[in-house]
Amino acid sequence: MSGQGSSKKSDSSPGYDLVVVANRLPVDVTVDASGGVSWQRSPGGLVTALEPVMREADGAWVGWSGAPDLEHEPFEADEMLLVPVTLSRAEIEGYYEGFANDTLWPLYHDVISPPAYHRQWWDAYRRVNQRFAEAAAAQAAEGAVVWVHDYQLQLVPRMLRDLRPDLRIGFFEHIPFPAVELFQQLPWRHQIVEGLLGADLIGFQRGGDASNFVRSVRRLTKHTTRGPIITVNDEDGRPGRHVRAAAFPISIDSAHFDRLARSPEVQARAKEIRADLGDPEVMMLGVDRLDYTKGIRHRIKAYGELLQDGRLDVGHCTLVQVASPSRENVEAYQELREHVEVLVGRINGEFGELGHSAIHYLHHSYPPAEMAALYLAADVMLVTSLRDGMNLVAKEYVAARSDERGVLVLSEFTGAADELAPGPLLCNPHDIDGMKDIIVAAAHMDPKEQRRRMRRLRRKVVADDVAKWSQSFLGVLTAMPPRTSHV
Ligand code: G6P
């Protein structure tokens, strides 16, 4: 996909009826030596979720290309208008690597890694959020729906409302929202809460995230709350708009994964993967971005101890760990990579044999067909996050297993655990002994029990797919009563 085209506008009024605002555009950009720009569709979950609604609604997508200093006109691709927002290298450092990924990310994931609070990062976050809000305001038709996504853009709803009080604004937080006792560490907690309250509807992954947010509103502002409804008062204390905060658990394109995994090519590839691994009795699989929230070290530690204890052995069992590169300029991620790689090296050195590695560690990302083959090949899927908004890998594994085989080990601290229990074997990744017992139980689970659990899981994952998620969010947003004032 490439190009730069004229923008398609809605028939009724200038501008687009649906505008999505997300940190990333749904395409990756390549800039060649002569400065030529080309765009390739990136296979992220969000674009899959929104593609059908975007196509139907005549939509525009505002986002960053992922490259520094790239200036590019809006262009048409896959029946939507893509609107690139330019970020300088310094803004990438302050807004993206700094405030988004070294302040908010660790704070919202229960301070697993210590958040850093820097005033320059906050200034960059504010400035960049303003730019996104202006870009969205410029594209939206009168009365349009604007859907803003994730922790990188929490000031956009309020900024957008100031620019365009006619819009209907939704916000979805893809990551957890922390307890107020943690959230209140943030020096700019008031601005973030007020920023989000610019929306009409604020969606979260779990009911617990929505109630954490409502508690923060009660504790940190003068607005009144009643259940999920927040009444945003104006500066003189007069009641104004109603904002709803509620759970809308995200999902995947289940039918797509199911189809992929049923294709002869993927099935052949799954067999090939097992053969390449020496046809182990039990193949375990971990698939994560290389992120400290994912509990990769806890998982590998538990696995290493099971080899040490002789409860698993490399002649019969192997672990494949896919760790896709992520946020490599952020120090906490560099440290994690060091730690994981030292640990993998130590376990392989100690327990590996010629022809039998204890752990196959792959620091790559793979296309969906290869992922489907890995899922299909794996007897046990290990999802051991210390904190995770949802975890879509768990759902992809289930969607790929139309053979009703395989065991999902799932951390209690994922949004997916709230939805999928009691199908998975739930674990607490902090409890290494408990997790070891669960991994052994998964490795030995009889096929009948596997089938019973996988059926349950599949019923849920197939029914609640990502199209249903976006329809239900947009359905609630557009059905909300008209605003009573422009507070
Ligand atoms: C999480 C976030 C997304 C983000 C993704 C990849 O899923 O919720 O907003 O896009 O991680 O991270 P990156 O920093 O590469 O965009």
Report the helical percentage: 40-55%
**In what order do the strands lie side by side in the largest sheet?**
5-6-4-1-7-8-9-12-11-10
Q: CATH first level of the largest domain: which class?
A: Alpha Beta
Proportion of residues in β-strands: 15-25%
Overall pLDDT confidence? 93
Oligomer: single chain
Uncertain segments:
1-10
Structural class, from secondary structure content? alpha/beta
Shape: globular
State the CATH topology of the largest domain: Rossmann fold
Largest sheet: 10 strands, mixed
CA-atom Rg in angstroms: 23 Å
Bound molecules: 6-O-phosphono-alpha-D-glucopyranose
Written overview of the protein:
There is one protein chain. The protein has 487 residues and is of the alpha/beta class. It folds into two domains: 246 residues, Rossmann fold (3-Layer(aba) Sandwich), CATH 3.40.50.2000; 210 residues, Glycogen Phosphorylase B (Rossmann fold). The strands form three sheets. The protein has a ten-stranded mixed β-sheet with strand order 5-6-4-1-7-8-9-12-11-10, sandwiched between helices. A hairpin with a 5-residue loop joins strand 11 and strand 12. The structure holds 6-O-phosphono-alpha-D-glucopyranose.
